[in-house]
Amino acid sequence: MKKIIHLFAILSLLGISTFTACGKSESEVTIYPAPGDLSGVQGLEESGVFDLSVSGKDAFVYRGWEIRDEFEWYGDAGVMVDSPSYNGVSFCAFETTGKCEIKITTTEVIEHWDLKPTVEGAKKLDDHTIVATIDGPQKLFLSVDLEGNEEHDYFIISAESAMDYKVSKKDSSVLYLEKGVHHFGQAWDPFVEGVKTVYLEPGAVVEATIRSKGKQNISILGRGVFAQSFVRHAEEVENRQEQEWDADWTGICLTDSQNIVMEGVWIANSPGYQCEFSNCVNVLTRNVKLTGFGEHNNDGYHLYGKNITVEDGFVAGNDDRICVTGLYDADNGDGNLEWDGVIQLIGVPAENITIRNMVFAGLHNNGGDIMLTWNGADYCRNVIIEDCKSLFATNKGFLASKHGGSAIFDQILIQNIHLYHPVLVTLEVADGRYMGAGGGAIHNFTLKDITIDAEPSEVGLFMNGQNETSDISGFHFINLTANGKKITDLSQTAIEINEFVSDITFE
What we know:
mainly beta, Pectate Lyase C-like, seven-stranded mixed β-sheet, 43 strands
């Protein structure tokens, strides 16, 4: 159904050597080094809330947060006033070859805690300590209520496999960023003067957003952190001009490019869309962590192209975690950082997209995990979404659309999904909106082996077509279970449909 893009194949185009580790008989843990002095990095510091040890080894824990300013956007109902990112989010990554014990220590007394995805045997050891044994690489999200704190404190942990490539400092095509702090600023294009690979050494912190266009055979690799609190959100300006579409305010934006690999890095506190591939072909992201869920328009990935694989990663966002299709800024303005008033939103076909082994954390009741489309253009087909976990319910479903575009969706497979909540679908096909052309439709979906932690009667929310041609049809559910109970008919659920939804079957 899909042409798989392999890390080794694309790295070989870049001249980066790859290898496979073997012969290890027991688990090994590698702790990444501390970055050094973070006092010159806005919105990033060593966490003063959590400590972490892994199999007895102390790990460095970051804490990132969004910086509020006088033009902060609160929305009509003030929904962003208490955004989690303003309070800070702690995070840490390390490598493990197998089973290891993690011990999390807090500065204040733990009143309540919740660790997702569920780890069997995880327990509170004492008032300040939580311990768990994990079987190998995985992504974890810990929420705690600490005595004296009014807000939840969050800790994101990435236990990950070792890098399976080597990057040479002597290679002139590699921008090799060593441990420590590096400042490159807003809308940085690193892929100039022969640079094909940006490598962040473990312990490297890069204060930059990236904007690059028309590139081939490029990669962003390593185990370092992109810190992006230094750039405010695009709409946080006087007179509330609509500037959010400009790529200058996107965390990492690659446009009109081919043969791209992004592996291992952490992208923290993006000022808007966290990672966008616009009109890109042959893209692989693996073990990338996106944690910028403070602001509105804080989507995780935009996957607007062909032959794209996103796997083994984590996305926290205060808007849609992954957008499969949509419109993007053609970036045809004058190129200055200040908004030039030029917005030309365009869409491209989307095809052969795989999203696998991902963990989604949507907080502050906003956005869907898989937002098929707000708009989109042309067609979207041959999409596989598998082996994913959705940790929290928000105002849109795990599978969502707000489709005011012209794209026709076809041949979509969604399988082996675990929802820790009941909000399965919020699918809507609508007339043109938000600059969309309208006329789209959603057809031929298979949802297989979907596990939901709720009663069948709680599973929702809705599927609404627009008319007889802009409709929703051909949804085939195979082994949909809620609290272990198999759902065999829509009437068992709380999913509402309108007259422009048809051909829904269960097996």
